[in-house]
Model the fold of this input.
Amino acid sequence: MDNLLVTGGAGFIGSNFTRYWLKNRPQDRVVVLDALTYAGNLASLSAVQENKKYRFVHGNICDQSLVESLIRTENINKIIHFAAESHVDRSILGPDAFIETNVIGTHVLLKVAKKIWLDEKSIGARHRFHHVSTDEVYGSLGAEDPPFTENTPYRPNSPYAASKAASDHLVRAYHHTYGLPTTISNCSNNYGPYQFPEKLIPLVLLNILHEKALPVYGEGKNIRDWLYVEDHCRGIEVVLDKGMVGETYNIGGKNEWENIKIVKLLCRLMDEKRQETNFNVQKKNSERLIAFVKDRPGHDFRYAIDAVKIENQLGFKPEETFETGIRKTIAWYLENSAWWRNIMDGSYQEWIALQYKNSYVSIK
Ligand code: NAD
Ligand code: TYD
Done:
């Protein structure tokens, strides 16, 4: 039996992971630590709130005394670290929070894990610090470049990517210097249920529903490699179970798409869905909502993951195809309007207004 501390468990991937873990590992205890920033949402954890093996703690990973007391009182032997500021556009407009949470916060967790697990040896065995990171640390690929491997040199381009790269380096250093039992996974772009609608896929889905413009940065030719969120959770599970301490594993789905093609696909699938459900049938041809807008500064051209290491060494392969994953995602957003309606008031509107003010998204 393991006692997990899941940081950032009220966010997109962390909440999917928490639900996944409690369902598949009923013997384990999961303590979620989350600051409930604009991206954190307790409603994403409502499915597990009655589970006796789950506890939610509202707090900041930068709060060392809170982290220390939690690890001690809950006898935590595994930390799965998702908490982060995660949106590139926000990092361009305000990088400070990214340095605070992603760099300082990660260091607080590492310091405390080392102190309690290694220096004091006060909590049993089977320790693991798993750091959830991104392919964006590797920088940008040209159209013909081979995908990122675990040996690709780091060349982060956005403040977000730089802060994640810094945290990856700290995790590696704590393993190399102190022997902290760490693993790192660098994953490609995720999509799926409970994703905050500032990221491309949920933003486009909800804007189609609301008959709002679909902002495509630049010419829409940038490429991302998309993975269904539950496959990411499964990949992390495999690294926790079979990964070698001190190692890094890339997780991805061999699923590269130009942004404009994704946006057009979402338009088509939403139009089909309207026909099926007889919902707003007269509002077809969602493609008419596409609006090419000013490009993101320093916009990375292409990300692509080479996931051969995790496949060959740990036997992991994604289960979802893009076709099935995207249909599940659309169905989820259509069936869970209460979840996104709550979010779309308040701080979300402030963010949209801030983007307009900076003429970063130059549409109305
Ligand atoms: P998210 O923004 O949806 O969620 C982040 C969560 O962290 C939120 O619940 C937020 O409240 C919490 N948080 C933020 N600052 C905190 C702090 N100081 N203390 C405690 N909690 C805090 O992010 P996500 O998309 O779920 O990403 C989770 C992790 O996965 C991140 O580390 C991100 O870098 C990484 N990642 C994301 C993707 C992706 O496509 N979304 C891909 C690869 C890796
Ligand atoms: P995003 O979901 O923000 O993820 P990331 O920047 O971490 O890859 O964006 C995915 C891609 O979609 C990226 O190339 C930027 C682009 N994009 C748009 O064209 N329009 C949008 O409104 C958003 C949010 C993103």
Summary: The two ends are 53 Å apart (CA to CA). Residues 88, 189, 199-200, 203, 215-217, 222, 224, 259, 296 surround thymidine-5'-diphosphate (ligand 2) (CB under 6 Å).
